[in-house]
User: Fold these one by one.
Assistant:
Number 1:
Amino acid sequence: MTDFGPVMPAFAELADGVRRIVAPNPSMMTGPGTNTYLIGKSEIAVIDPGPLLTDHIADIRDKAGGDIRWILATHSHPDHSPGVARLAELTGADVLGMPAPNGEHQDKSFHPTRVLSDGDILETDEFVIQAIHTPGHASNHLCYRHAATNWIMTGDHVIDGATVVIDPPDGNMTHYLESLQKLKALRPAALLPGHGARIDDPDAAIDWIIQHRLEREEKVLAAVKENPHLTTRELVPYVYQDVPEKLFAWAERSLQAHLIKLEADLSTTMETGRWKII
Ligand SMILES: [Zn+2]
């Protein structure tokens, strides 16, 4: 996850009433950092305040230049939502999103005051935002469509210049591919990802991800066929020759997601932790 192109400015106005602040949490998994979006000018919705970083929370309030009335989270992973509770406490804003599911790698401090469902709308005097449920990377993942620009804030569903980890059981490869098709069918004009720069050709970006995942699936099938009775961990080097070994632990999670999908598709099965072709 290192190919994020040129370094991004920490603050940018992307369109009238659409601004982006990059949280100072750059890493191999977060690229330049988590993108926080500010929608509106006098009454503002903040999308993904990111991790709980005092300076970043202060920066969001500083740059807002108006009342922060709503805080929306795309999902409850540790690099997206832990700043929500603190920002809500400081501003009195409503918190919108889907509650964190049980399990690892979840921000348990995330508690929406308004639980969103697919298609729900936040309508204000200045803007309209629509929630789109996009499970796959996370079961409670929402993308947000900004009506005036027809841009979609995609969180970790689609990021710029890299693929995301699908980490079962909360991550689900079948749902992920379905949610990509769902996003594409909405014909967005651009995507504003949770990490990296604006994506101006959504169709090409989404098609690339789907193609990449299906090619990986082919590799998984071939690897299980040629090397039956291996565990998921033992299969990693056969499927991820292009991935540096230090990322194998994450690759194993996505490989597990592929194998679960193939099992649901009746192509593979597992006995005592070892995979084989049906
Ligand atoms: Zn995530």
Number 2:
Amino acid sequence: MNGSLDFGLKDKVAIVAGGGALGQDIGNGRAASILLAEAGAKVLVVDKDELLAETTVQMIEERSGEASWISGDLTESDQCKKVVDFAISKWGRLDILDNNIGIASKLSVVDESEENWDHIMDINLKPMFLMSKYAIPEMIKSGNGGSIVNISSISATRPKGLTTYSASKGAVLSLSQAMAVDHGADGIRVNCILPGPVYTPMVYSNGMSKDHRSQRQNASLIEIEGDGWDIGKAVVYLSSNWARYITGHLMVVDGGCSLSARPRG
Ligand SMILES: NC(=O)c1ccc[n+]([C@@H]2O[C@H](COP(=O)([O-])OP(=O)(O)OC[C@H]3O[C@@H](n4cnc5c(N)ncnc54)[C@H](O)[C@@H]3O)[C@@H](O)[C@H]2O)c1
């Protein structure tokens, strides 16, 4: 033992779906991309916005990691196939998929429009289905099993007025466990992370008052604010050999928020 952590990710190939973030800021997907690369994986960063994906790759390269980027709208089947094909043509194998894409909606079923319901379901579920559909056969061909991590939310189990979002994220829990059952015999582990309120550009880019921010922070039993790195570290752990006996797991990463009755903003 030399004291360094070896997650067994050296020479593994990972795709992070939704790996961009605004500016130099840290969202869940960007953090996972950077940390997977730091742990030794070659990382394909995918985002519908090419500048955001490219910036993540630059941040990885500044830390001496290996990464590439590709843009695409992952609600579309041909784009998902193109992404998986790109990873295979570049690195010849695929081991890890982080299905990170998701957007919120704030309304009850009474106030929600049918159009927005369809839109949220499309973005929060379809990329997970389509990326997994094309990634799993390649993981099997690569011959060493694989890991898929789907990003849900504590809103799946502790709703707080984000009803369409909660429903979509609840489906992510079932999807993850069903996929774990379907593909366990292929050596593919499928796990799911339920983040609490973490401070990412997606939640603060339209502005967040000081009060709202401290309410989110104080919702945690340990009164700390979660950030993208907390989620990225959980992705690395679940993707690594350290988690080789873990599949179908729903991992809450929320500083205890979901055990607390405190409002989370
Ligand atoms: N931030 C939070 O408080 C929080 C809490 C619970 C769960 N989550 C979940 O974590 C995940 C990441 O959230 P985040 O806030 O860190 O965002 P993020 O910073 O990781 O950004 C997600 C990226 O996905 C990209 N994207 C969106 N739609 C896409 C599409 N159709 N095709 C390709 N790329 C697309 C966006 O351009 C964005 O760069 C989401 O699933 C979200 O629901 C976040």
